[in-house]
Amino acid sequence: MSESNIEFDCPYCGYPNFSPLDPLSGTQQWTTDCENCCHPIALRVKVRGGELEELDVEREQD
Ligand SMILES: [Zn+2]
User: Which residues surround ligand 1, an ion (CB under 5 A)?
Assistant: First the structure.
């Protein structure tokens, strides 16, 4: 089973980050920390047929 990654720019500092993508179809949401500035980033992706269909990157709200 191969694991794919998504690439996204940090909404705080613009640093390019990578996160593993679960190829399961549907909408997935999780939070990750920027590798550069360590701020929490809220990710939402939509996957269909193992392919990334939509990617939303937002600042995590406190
Ligand atoms: Zn950052």
Answer: 10, 12-13, 15, 34, 36-37
Q: One digit per residue, pLDDT tens: the chain, 62 residues?
A: 456 889 999 999 999 999 998 888 999 999 999 999 999 999 999 999 888 999 999 999 87
| Residue 9 CA to ligand 1 centre (angstroms) | 8
Per residue, the 3-state secondary structure of the chain, as one string, reads CCCEEEEEECCCCCCEEEEEECCCCEEEEEEEECCCCCCEEEEEEEEECCEEEEEEEEECCC
Q: Are 17 and 9 in contact (CB under 8 A)?
A: yes
